[in-house]
Amino acid sequence: QVQLVESGGGSVQAGGSLRLACVGSGRPGSSWSMGWFRQAPGKEREFVAAVTWSGSNTYYTDSVQGRFTIWKENGKNTVYLQMNSLKPEDTAVYYCAAYIYGPADCYTEFRCVDYWGRGTQVTVSS
What we know:
The chain is 0% helix and 48% strand. It is mostly beta strands and 126 residues long.
């Protein structure tokens, strides 16, 4: 049974920073590609960032490129998202995602994700 537990959400003023973490458990001995999606009130869940199982490749949606950084803890299924220069439009529930069984090089769509975390709230005030 795979579980993903997020932490690090909170409230911050525009221009501030937050770091999210997601710890994955289950399927010992396997290394997963992992990522983050977010869902704002009244909007669909959208892709934010992903990192491959080895940590060697990262992917970002255009709106966070240059402000957010994703990385995996070496040898672990733990992923972080450093969010800098936060904007009010970054306000959302952020969900951790694990890509385990799906097609290779598939990160940005729901169909790519095999497991989800429960989410952590990020609120950015102006």
